[in-house]
Amino acid sequence: MELLHIDLFGPVSTASIYGNKYGLVIVDDYSRWSWVKFLKSKDDSYDVFSKFCIQIQSEKELKILKVRSDHGGEFENEPFEIFCEKHGLIHEFSSPRTPQQNGVVERKNRSLQEMARTMIHENNLEKHFWAEVVNTACYVQNRIYIRPLLNKTTYELFKGRKPNISYFHQFECTRYILNNKVYLKKFDAKAQKGISLGYSERSKAYRLYNSETLCVEESMHVKFDGKEPGDETPEQIDIAGSEDSDDYSEPDQISELNGTSEAVTAPDIPEAAAAPDVPTT
Q1: Sorting pLDDT into bands at 50, 70 and 90, what band is 40?
Q2: Contact 33, 132 (CB under 8 A)
Q3: Cβ–Cβ < 8 Å for 205, 177
Q4: Residue 246 — φ and ψ, nearest 5°?
Q5: What CA–CA distance (Å, rounded) separates 40 from 19?
Q6: Structural contact between residues 169 and 224, judged by C-beta atoms closer than 8 angstroms
Q7: What does the pLDDT look like over 77-102, one tens digit per residue?
Q8: Which of 17-26, 162-171, 184-193 has the weakest average pLDDT?
Q9: So what's the pLDDT on residue 226?
Q10: Residue 251: phi, psi to the nearest 5?
Q11: If one looks up domain 3-159 in CATH, what number appears?
Q12: Does residue 43 surpass a pLDDT of 70?
């Protein structure tokens, strides 16, 4: 927590479902643990970052010593400098037009966007879900990436224990959410159909988009559909097997009656019995 790298990406052409168009990426230099905060405007960067610093220092009981960013107007301004002076933070800048000097967060920024783009197009997801997808990408990367020099995951370095990923499921698979909010009549459906959008950061729950209420909600009362995207049905498997078959033997006889092409086997015809010898007179 001694050094934090920060960078901003955006504006995204399509606003998220909550109206955000920017993403503030924050990376811890030692563990490479990352956070993404979504903003409606660049002007919100100072408020979001200042609240984040106070919260994370209280949570980890550690003090942030340095912050490194580029010379963007959202970082190089009077309120930001006053906050750094008040809390004893050293604000470092990368040289103009030299993003590699802040390469830790620049690479993280790019990897999050590339991973999110792949997830959106692979699952034909609407683009206004981009913030949910980026958040899920960050959540997953924090638990699977390994720092080569330390041979430990980011999660292990930041949390002090190995991550549990047994609850991970395929992104955007169909799920059925238990309807425990609305009063149900005798024969109303107990579940509502939705799609998976990721995992909650603040509770042990999944984040889902409810296709009936058209809103994002968090719940643990979820049933996963057994058929994941890309699974083949038995009929598809049989058809594929018949198409790939190497048996091209033709039937002995083809019946063209009634427009059919079924193989017909000729009946066995008994051989004619030999005529008995008749004595001649």
Answers
A1: very high
A2: no
A3: no
A4: -95, 5
A5: 6
A6: yes
A7: 999 999 999 999 999 999 998 989 99
A8: 184-193
A9: 54
A10: -65, 160
A11: 3.30.420.10
A12: yes
Tokens encoding 9: 């990406």
Beta pairing, strands 174-178 & 66-69? unpaired
Q: Residue 230: phi, psi to the nearest 5?
A: 100, -10
Whether the pLDDT of residue 261 is over 80: the answer is no
Where residue 4 falls among pLDDT bands split at 50, 70, 90?
Answer: very high
Who has greater pLDDT, 241 or 7? 7
Cis ω on the peptide bond leading into residue 11 (within 30° of 0)? yes
pLDDT at 237: 29
| Separation CA 19–CA 38 (nearest Å) | 9
For the beta carbon of residue 222, count every other beta carbon within 10 angstroms.
16
Tell me how far apart the alpha carbons of residues 82 and 88 are, in angstroms, rounded to a whole number. Answer: 10
250 phi and psi, to 5 degrees? -95, 150
Tell me the pLDDT of the chain averaged across its residues.
82
Q: What is the amino acid identity at position 209? A: Y
Q: Which of 209, 217, 206, 208 is nearest to 181 (CA)?
A: 217
**Cα-based distances in Å from 206 to 6, 143, 167, 201:** 28, 16, 10, 9
Q: Which residue from 24, 76, 19 is spatially nearest to 49, judged by alpha carbons?
A: 24
